[in-house]
Amino acid sequence: MTKRKLRVGLVGLGGVGSIHLEAYRDSSAIELVAAAEIDDAKRTSLQARYGFRPYADFTRMLREETLDLVCVATPVVTHEAVAIACAEAGKHVLCEKPLAVEVASARRMIAACAAAGVKLFYGASYRFLPALRKARDLIGSGAIGEVLLMREQEIGGTGPDGRQIMGFAHYPPGGPGGSGLGLVDHGIHLIDAFGWMTGSPVASVFGRGNISGAAPSTEYLLMNFRNGSLGHLLYEDSTFPTSLPGEGIFSWGSAWSLDGYVPPGRWQSAPGTIHVHGTKGALRIHHYAHALFLTDRNGTRQIELEGSSAPGHFAAQMESCARSILDGAPVEVPGEAGLAALEVLTAAYRSFEEKQVISLG
Predict the structure, then answer these.
(1) Domains observed in the chain
(2) Which residues of 149-183 are buried (b: 16+ CB within 10 A; e: fewer)?
(3) What per-residue string of b and e applies to 27-55 under the rule 16 or more CB within 10 Å gives b?
(4) Cβ contacts of residue 62 below 8 Å, gap of 6+?
(5) How do residues 199-209 score in pLDDT, each as one tens digit?
(6) What is the mean predicted confidence (pLDDT) over 21-27?
(7) Residue 361: HSE in the Cβ half-sphere, 13 Å Cα cutoff
(8) Distances from the Cα of 104 to the Cαs of 145, 220, 223, 270, 351, in angstroms?
(9) How far is CA 206 from the centre of its chain?
(10) What does R_g of the chain's alpha carbons equal in angstroms?
């Protein structure tokens, strides 16, 4: 890769945005030039720690700074307006997940970037977690045979009063919404990752997701993939966990859990886990804890991983953008990937309303 660093601007210094800052700190491919945040106290505090040029108005940052790319880490409801403004200013865009609230909005973002001649990168950051990347390699090599089932769930909490609902600033009332570890804000990662790991698109779906502003319920999604495999997601954060002492794992990476954000180096009693079952073996992927286990006829063994654990995957994602922008490499995760995941998600909502399986493409 060229020796010049990618000049990056960041819009939004909330929970995810501030973690991006930490991830970029040690990257030799990235120069964080500026960041925009409307919260004065947050902007001032983080600027003192990370040394970027601060802006209260992101449009002023676009006018005054020479940037290669802008990372959009604002609430989802603002993604379209911010991304299109960046494109019209001639800046390449990396947009956090979900790409948008509505499919039509995502399509407008893709069209605006194409019209402006800039690249739109989708923030499918799970694709840059070492455990998932290695799992994909093993699946591709045939290590577990034909994939039959992929599953992930987040179930637990401290009862109904402990549920952490994301407000209207993120998801407008009446549309998809819910908790930070629910189907929309978290499950969108798995919708993308399951298809990416197997190389197969979704053929049909059935599910139920929470509506922003409405009484929440247990969320689920069944995805039938064109290769014959099944994807299953299940989320409920208003109950209590059933994990027993000693069932967790020591986490090498930071994590988002039902307990909130957990820094690296902590014991995880209920770590995020993805299970992939095949005809010759199975994988247990602790994506944030930075651990991968393979079980087959020879027993269970841990697989060695390369690369940085979370939040280093955000830097790896940005370095992929740098290769594309500075060296002309193909876009590894384009905006169309975010659109495809959003189409699956919205089809799940439609399936529950119509009480039928929804076919895709």
Answers:
(1) 6-126+312-334 (3.40.50.720), 127-309+345-353 (3.30.360.10)
(2) ebbbbbbbbeeeeebebbeeebbeeebbbbbbbbb
(3) bebbbbbbbbbeeeeebeebbeebebebb
(4) 9, 70, 85, 86, 89, 91
(5) 999 999 999 99
(6) 90
(7) 11
(8) 38, 24, 22, 37, 18
(9) 21
(10) 20
Q: Are 254 and 261 in contact (CB under 8 A)?
A: yes
Considering the chain, what is the average pLDDT of its residues?
95
Task: Report the distance separating Cα 163 and Cα 214, nearest Å.
Answer: 13
Which phi and psi (to 5°) does residue 266 adopt? Answer: -115, 155
179-216 confidence digits (pLDDT tens): 999 999 999 999 999 999 999 999 999 999 999 999 99
CA 91 to chain centroid, in Å, comes to 22
Backbone φ and ψ for 181, nearest 5 degrees, come out as -110, 35
CA angle 86, 109, 36 (to 5 degrees): 30
Q: Which of 248, 262, 188, 244 is nearest to 221 (CA)?
A: 188
* pLDDT surpassing 70 at residue 166: yes
* pLDDT, tens digit, 9 for 90 and up, residues 86-100: 999 999 999 999 999
The contacts of residue 291 (CB under 8 Å, 6+ apart) are 131, 249, 252, 302, 305
The amino acid present at 8, given as its one-letter code, is: V
Closest by CA to 14, choosing from 96, 86, 93, is 96
Of 178, 176, 192, 28, residue with least CA distance to 125: 192
Residue type at position 262: V
Biggest alpha carbon distance in the chain? 60
Q: How confident is the model at residue 361 (pLDDT cuts 50, 70, 90)?
A: confident
CB neighbours of residue 330 within 10 Å:
8
**pLDDT band at 255, cuts 50/70/90?**
confident
Q: Is the pLDDT of residue 1 over 60?
A: no
Residue with tokens 């002309």: 328
Amino acid at position 325, single letter? I
